[in-house]
Amino acid sequence: MYSIRSSQAVACAAIALFSAVGLAASAQQSLAPSGPSPVLVTVSEVPQPGAEAAHAALEAQYAAALNADKAAQYYLGMGALTGKQQNLFLSGYASLEQMADVHDHDEFLLGEKLADLDQQHSEMLSSVNTAIWLFRPLLSNPNPANLAQMRFMEMIHIHVKPGHGPEFAQFTEQMRDTWAKVDPDFHFSVYQQLYGNATDDSYLVMIPVQSLADIDHHQSLVGQYAKSLSPEAQKQMLDFERADYNSTESNLFAFTPAMSRLPASWIRNDAAFWTPAPPAPPAPAKKAAKAN
Q1: Less crowded by CB within 10 Å, the N or C end of the chain?
Q2: Predicted structure pTM score
Q3: Where are the beta strands (DSSP E) in 118-273?
Q4: Is 141 a member of any domain?
Q5: Residue 44 belongs to what H/E stretch?
Q6: Are strands 125-135 and 87-93 parallel, antiparallel or unpaired?
Q7: Could you give the CA distance from residue 167 to residue 208 in angstroms, rounded to a whole number?
Q8: Closest by alpha carbon to 204, among 189, 219, 223?
Q9: Alpha carbon separation from 52 to 9, 106, 120, 125 (Å, rounded)
């Protein structure tokens, strides 16, 4: 993945010289499992057909290089289970300033060292899409559970017609409050795109789950949710969906430890998942017995 390549898109005037320890600590705080980060960077990478395995191997080399030099950036890697075949990387920050500091620090530290990997990386990708999002806490119902113990993420990308953000906020708040009564275990975080290639008002709804059984349970309550809405509320929601949406797309992703670089605070929560032991080598073949 790594995003020191995308740091050119973050307009920074100069390289800020911070200690690797200080930056790593602040980045670790922003990616801590305690809650959604105020600033989220998403990088979607689509490998060339047939380059999926090579891309995964290259990501492991990136992580090894970042670990060797104690780089400041951490990221969660996920693989798409639905929609287009892509790898999605999430990086969380406390602020845009921290994001710029981390990127500039790592580019200063590793830019030249990763030049060859960068070249290989660009040649094996058919597309890359980077976006920066801001957390909308008043529209969200984040999961108080430990994100490091989740295994899947449903990502809903909602495109709202320009100028209809207030209607979307009202709609989302009503949905959140109703679901809180029907399914208290339904948690989600809403982000609004600040920078990216969207030409409308773009939102990202993130729903982390530990098991796909959690989604089964939630879906089983959809009918109950609909019945709990008043006729007026149902009409308002239908009117909004008809008049204010451009489009919406929902896809499911699986967490990918091999494509992630996470702080120790994550790994300690479930080391068996985040740092799995390599498979045992095959047993040596037995020699055939000699004939008498």
Answers
A1: C
A2: 0.83
A3: 125-135, 152-160, 189-195, 201-209, 245-255
A4: yes
A5: strand 39-47
A6: unpaired
A7: 25
A8: 189
A9: 26, 26, 13, 9
Contacts of 241 (CB under 8 A, 6+ apart): none
Mean pLDDT of the chain: 82
Contact 41, 130 (CB under 8 A): yes
What does the block give as tokens for 291?
Answer: 């004939």
Dihedral sign of CA atoms 165, 168, 173, 176 in order: negative
Q: Are residues 141 and 239 in the same domain?
A: yes
Length of the chain: 292
292, pLDDT greater than 90: no
Residues 96 and 157 in one domain: no
Alpha carbon distance, N-terminus to C-terminus of the chain: 60
DSSP-derived letter for residue 80 is E
Examine the domain organization and report whether 168 and 199 are in the same domain. yes
Tokens of 150: 């989740």
- Tell me, what amino acid is at 113? K
